[in-house]
Amino acid sequence: MHFSPALAILAVLAPSSILAAPTKTTNLQRRTDSKTASSSSLTDETFDISVLSKIWQQASSCDVSSVTMPLSDASSPTALPSPSSGLTLSHVAVGRGTQNYTCSGLSATESPKALGAVATLFNATCAAANSPSLLYDTPAIALQYDIPTAASALEAYSILLSGHHYFTNASTPFFNLDTADHNWGVVAAQKAASVSAPSSGSGAAAAVNKKLTDDGVDGAENGSCAWLQLAARDEPGLAWKEVYRLNTAGGNAPDTCEGIDGDFEVQYAATYWFWA
Question: Taking the domains of the chain in order of start, what are their residue ranges?
Answer without folding.
Answer: 5-22+35-275
